[in-house]
Write a structure and sequence with these properties.
alpha/beta, Metallo-beta-lactamase, Chain A, 6-stranded mixed beta sheet, 7 helices, about 30% helix, binds zinc ion
Length: about 280
């Protein structure tokens, strides 16, 4: 399934090789089941007063775990999952076996992790090792973001990615929630976002404005494609995604459905057995 990003092309507001904050190390590791061949997931190591947090270990391969342990500047005390897509949690159980570190994440993340893992739920507003926790659904309902308010940086998982755009795949993805989460991040005046894929975001406002505008522009095209006669998603695709490579239509179909569900919830589109129409 389509769990992550993206068309691998760098976004506005990003910078390859931007220096990371002092307390943070980043490893790019190809997950055991990557979405696109060679598209790595970033695994962050965060130094705290009491050891290192590992965010999103992507792979259970011994070489990947060796790399994570070698890069840790202090004992690994905790494993944090930003959301439970396979390319972000592939190494969680194996890293726990090696280090004994407990696992932290959104309360809804636990059922998607191995049942024997010691798990601690992180809730909205929690302070965790100097980071504030936000629940930021949209890409997945169990998404969290870690915010360092003093440094004005955030570890965002797949809420945004440094390359391309994020797939919103219903029902686990929800476009209304997603736009709310983006808007919330936009209002936070951060100076750096550390995404799960692609380069560092050094101008969060520019990237988030672009992301939000991109979705609203697409929404306009979806609305324009709808008519009085119900049409299927497949029939609407070439209209609403006329700027996209047809090879990406399977992905675009999920995004289109996400748009239609948002419009339906807002009373701006109607679902029929034969497809989708405008409100008459
Ligand atoms: Zn994801």
């Amino acid at each position: 399934m389509w769990w992550a990003a993206t068309m691998p092309r760098d976004n506005v507001g990003t910078q390859r090789n931007a220096p990371l904050p002092r307390a943070i190390t980043r490893l790019s590791i190809v997950a055991d089941a990557p979405l696109f061949a060679g598209l790595a997931t970033h695994c962050y190591g965060v130094a705290t007063g009491d050891g290192v947090l590992i965010v999103d270990p992507p792979s259970q391969r011994a070489a990947a775990l060796d790399q994570i342990e070698a890069a840790a500047t202090a004992p690994i005390r905790a494993i944090v999952v930003t959301h439970t897509h396979p390319d972000h949690i592939g190494g969680v159980a194996a890293l726990h076996e090696r280090t004994g570190a407990p696992v932290y994440g959104h309360p809804a993340a636990q059922p998607h992790l191995a049942p024997h893992l010691p798990f601690h739920a992180l809730h909205e507003g929690d302070q965790f090792a100097g980071w504030q926790i936000w629940q930021t659904p949209g890409h997945r309902a169990d998404s969290i973001t870690l915010i360092d308010e003093q440094e004005r940086i955030a570890i965002v998982g797949d809420l945004v990615v440094g390359s391309g755009t994020v797939v919103i795949n219903p029902p686990e993805g929800d476009l209304t929630d997603y736009l709310t989460s983006l808007g919330r991040l936009r209002a936070a005046s951060l100076r750096m976002l550390l995404p799960g894929h692609g380069p560092v975001v050094v101008d969060p406002a520019a990237l988030l404005d672009y992301y939000i505008a991109h979705r609203l522009q697409r929404e306009g095209k979806v609305l324009a494609a709808l008519g009085a006669t119900p049409a299927t998603v497949e029939a609407l695709l070439p209209l609403a995604y006329d700027d996209s490579d047809p090879a990406l239509y399977p992905l675009a179909a999920r995004s289109l459905l996400a748009h239609l569900l948002k419009l339906e919830a807002e009373g701006r589109a109607v679902r029929h057995e034969a497809g989708w129409s405008t409100v008459l």
